[in-house]
Protein backbone atom coordinates (compact mmCIF):
# COMPACT_ATOMS: atom_id res chain seq x y z
CA UNK A 1 0.00 0.00 0.00
CA UNK A 2 2.83 2.43 0.90
CA UNK A 3 4.59 1.58 -2.33
CA UNK A 4 1.44 2.40 -4.32
CA UNK A 5 1.07 5.73 -2.49
CA UNK A 6 4.75 6.52 -3.09
CA UNK A 7 4.34 5.80 -6.82
CA UNK A 8 1.21 7.97 -7.01
CA UNK A 9 2.98 10.78 -5.12
CA UNK A 10 6.02 10.52 -7.43
CA UNK A 11 3.79 10.67 -10.51
CA UNK A 12 1.91 13.68 -9.09
CA UNK A 13 5.17 15.50 -8.34
CA UNK A 14 6.43 14.70 -11.84
CA UNK A 15 3.20 16.04 -13.41
CA UNK A 16 3.54 19.26 -11.37
CA UNK A 17 7.15 19.57 -12.51
CA UNK A 18 6.17 19.15 -16.17
CA UNK A 19 3.22 21.53 -15.80
CA UNK A 20 5.43 24.21 -14.27
CA UNK A 21 7.93 23.78 -17.11
CA UNK A 22 5.14 24.26 -19.64
CA UNK A 23 3.90 27.37 -17.85
CA UNK A 24 7.43 28.78 -17.82
CA UNK A 25 7.85 28.10 -21.54
CA UNK A 26 4.48 29.72 -22.31
CA UNK A 27 5.40 32.81 -20.27
CA UNK A 28 8.76 33.08 -22.04
CA UNK A 29 6.91 32.98 -25.37
CA UNK A 30 4.50 35.68 -24.21
CA UNK A 31 7.38 37.85 -23.00
CA UNK A 32 9.14 37.38 -26.32
CA UNK A 33 6.00 38.37 -28.23
CA UNK A 34 5.74 41.46 -26.07
CA UNK A 35 9.30 42.37 -27.12
CA UNK A 36 8.36 42.12 -30.79
CA UNK A 37 5.24 44.16 -30.16
CA UNK A 38 7.22 46.94 -28.46
CA UNK A 39 9.68 47.18 -31.36
CA UNK A 40 6.91 47.15 -33.97
CA UNK A 41 5.14 49.92 -32.05
CA UNK A 42 8.36 51.97 -32.00
CA UNK A 43 8.63 51.55 -35.76
CA UNK A 44 4.97 52.46 -36.27
CA UNK A 45 5.42 55.60 -34.16
CA UNK A 46 8.45 56.65 -36.21
CA UNK A 47 6.69 56.33 -39.58
CA UNK A 48 4.49 59.49 -39.37
CA UNK A 49 7.57 61.63 -38.70
CA UNK A 50 9.38 60.01 -41.59
CA UNK A 51 6.46 60.60 -43.94
CA UNK A 52 6.12 64.24 -42.93
CA UNK A 53 9.82 64.81 -43.57
CA UNK A 54 9.66 63.22 -47.02
CA UNK A 55 6.38 64.98 -47.86
CA UNK A 56 8.06 68.35 -47.67
CA UNK A 57 10.38 67.35 -50.48
CA UNK A 58 8.14 65.14 -52.59
CA UNK A 59 4.61 66.44 -52.20
CA UNK A 60 3.47 65.00 -55.54
CA UNK A 61 4.24 61.39 -54.48
CA UNK A 62 0.94 61.07 -52.61
CA UNK A 63 0.26 57.41 -53.49
CA UNK A 64 3.50 56.26 -51.84
CA UNK A 65 2.66 58.13 -48.63
CA UNK A 66 -0.87 56.76 -48.60
CA UNK A 67 0.41 53.22 -49.08
CA UNK A 68 2.84 53.51 -46.16
CA UNK A 69 0.13 54.94 -43.91
CA UNK A 70 -2.36 52.26 -44.99
CA UNK A 71 0.14 49.45 -44.32
CA UNK A 72 1.04 50.97 -40.93
CA UNK A 73 -2.65 51.14 -39.98
CA UNK A 74 -3.20 47.60 -41.21
CA UNK A 75 -0.29 46.32 -39.11
CA UNK A 76 -1.59 48.07 -36.02
CA UNK A 77 -5.11 46.70 -36.56
CA UNK A 78 -4.02 43.05 -36.34
CA UNK A 79 -5.39 41.45 -33.15
CA UNK A 80 -2.87 41.03 -30.32
CA UNK A 81 -2.33 37.27 -30.52
CA UNK A 82 -2.39 36.84 -34.30
CA UNK A 83 1.28 36.11 -34.97
CA UNK A 84 0.81 35.03 -38.60
CA UNK A 85 -1.40 38.04 -39.40
CA UNK A 86 1.03 40.41 -37.78
CA UNK A 87 3.97 38.90 -39.67
CA UNK A 88 2.15 39.33 -42.98
CA UNK A 89 1.08 42.91 -42.21
CA UNK A 90 4.58 43.87 -41.07
CA UNK A 91 6.03 42.38 -44.26
CA UNK A 92 3.73 44.58 -46.35
CA UNK A 93 4.73 47.59 -44.25
CA UNK A 94 8.41 46.82 -44.88
CA UNK A 95 7.72 46.76 -48.63
CA UNK A 96 5.94 50.12 -48.45
CA UNK A 97 8.83 51.61 -46.46
CA UNK A 98 11.21 50.33 -49.13
CA UNK A 99 9.25 52.28 -51.72
CA UNK A 100 9.40 55.37 -49.52
CA UNK A 101 13.18 55.12 -49.23
CA UNK A 102 13.48 54.49 -52.95
CA UNK A 103 11.51 57.69 -53.47
CA UNK A 104 14.00 59.54 -51.28
CA UNK A 105 16.73 58.59 -53.76
CA UNK A 106 15.19 60.97 -56.30
CA UNK A 107 15.54 63.98 -53.98
CA UNK A 108 19.16 64.94 -53.22
CA UNK A 109 18.10 67.69 -50.80
CA UNK A 110 16.10 65.16 -48.81
CA UNK A 111 19.04 62.76 -48.65
CA UNK A 112 21.09 65.55 -47.09
CA UNK A 113 18.39 66.62 -44.60
CA UNK A 114 19.59 66.01 -41.03
CA UNK A 115 16.08 65.19 -39.75
CA UNK A 116 15.60 62.60 -42.46
CA UNK A 117 19.02 61.07 -41.80
CA UNK A 118 18.24 60.80 -38.08
CA UNK A 119 14.86 59.21 -38.78
CA UNK A 120 16.44 56.78 -41.21
CA UNK A 121 19.13 55.83 -38.67
CA UNK A 122 16.46 55.33 -36.00
CA UNK A 123 14.47 53.12 -38.35
CA UNK A 124 17.55 51.03 -39.15
CA UNK A 125 18.22 50.59 -35.43
CA UNK A 126 14.63 49.56 -34.81
CA UNK A 127 14.75 47.10 -37.73
CA UNK A 128 17.78 45.45 -36.11
CA UNK A 129 15.98 45.27 -32.77
CA UNK A 130 12.92 43.78 -34.45
CA UNK A 131 15.14 41.07 -35.94
CA UNK A 132 16.59 40.28 -32.50
CA UNK A 133 13.11 40.23 -30.99
CA UNK A 134 11.86 37.89 -33.71
CA UNK A 135 14.74 35.49 -33.07
CA UNK A 136 14.07 35.55 -29.33
CA UNK A 137 10.35 34.96 -29.87
CA UNK A 138 10.95 32.12 -32.32
CA UNK A 139 13.40 30.50 -29.88
CA UNK A 140 10.82 30.75 -27.10
CA UNK A 141 8.11 29.38 -29.38
CA UNK A 142 10.42 26.51 -30.36
CA UNK A 143 11.10 25.66 -26.70
CA UNK A 144 7.38 25.65 -25.91
CA UNK A 145 6.59 23.57 -28.99
CA UNK A 146 9.22 20.98 -28.07
CA UNK A 147 7.66 20.62 -24.62
CA UNK A 148 4.14 20.45 -26.05
CA UNK A 149 5.12 17.70 -28.50
CA UNK A 150 7.64 15.69 -26.45
CA UNK A 151 6.73 12.65 -24.41
CA UNK A 152 5.71 12.63 -21.55
CA UNK A 153 5.13 16.39 -21.35
CA UNK A 154 2.75 16.15 -24.30
CA UNK A 155 0.36 14.18 -22.08
CA UNK A 156 0.32 16.96 -19.51
CA UNK A 157 0.15 19.65 -22.20
CA UNK A 158 -2.85 18.04 -23.87
CA UNK A 159 -4.72 17.66 -20.59
CA UNK A 160 -4.10 21.25 -19.48
CA UNK A 161 -4.72 22.98 -22.82
CA UNK A 162 -1.17 23.91 -23.83
CA UNK A 163 -0.82 24.31 -27.59
CA UNK A 164 1.99 24.92 -30.04
CA UNK A 165 2.98 28.52 -30.63
CA UNK A 166 3.24 29.82 -34.19
CA UNK A 167 6.57 31.13 -35.40
CA UNK A 168 6.91 34.75 -36.44
CA UNK A 169 8.03 34.24 -39.98
CA UNK A 170 7.54 35.99 -43.25
CA UNK A 171 6.13 33.76 -45.96
CA UNK A 172 6.57 36.03 -48.98
CA UNK A 173 10.20 36.15 -50.16
CA UNK A 174 9.82 39.79 -51.26
CA UNK A 175 8.76 40.68 -47.71
CA UNK A 176 11.96 39.21 -46.30
CA UNK A 177 14.11 41.92 -47.83
CA UNK A 178 14.88 44.78 -45.48
CA UNK A 179 14.64 48.10 -47.29
CA UNK A 180 18.07 49.32 -48.29
CA UNK A 181 18.82 52.97 -48.67
CA UNK A 182 21.94 54.27 -50.37
CA UNK A 183 23.10 57.81 -49.92
Automatic annotation (TrEMBL):
Compartments annotated for it: namely: Membrane
Q: Which UniProt keywords apply?
A: Membrane, Transmembrane, Transmembrane helix
Looking at the UniProt entry, the stretches that span the membrane are 6-25
GO CC terms of this entry: membrane
State the superkingdom: Bacteria
SUPFAM superfamilies documented for this protein: LemA-like
Q: Does the keyword Zinc apply?
A: no
Topology relative to the membrane: Single-pass membrane protein
Which family would the database say this protein is a member of? Belongs to the LemA family.
Q: What is the protein name stated in its UniProt record?
A: LemA family protein
Question: What lineage does UniProt assign to this protein's organism?
Answer: Bacteria, Pseudomonadati, Pseudomonadota, Alphaproteobacteria, Hyphomicrobiales
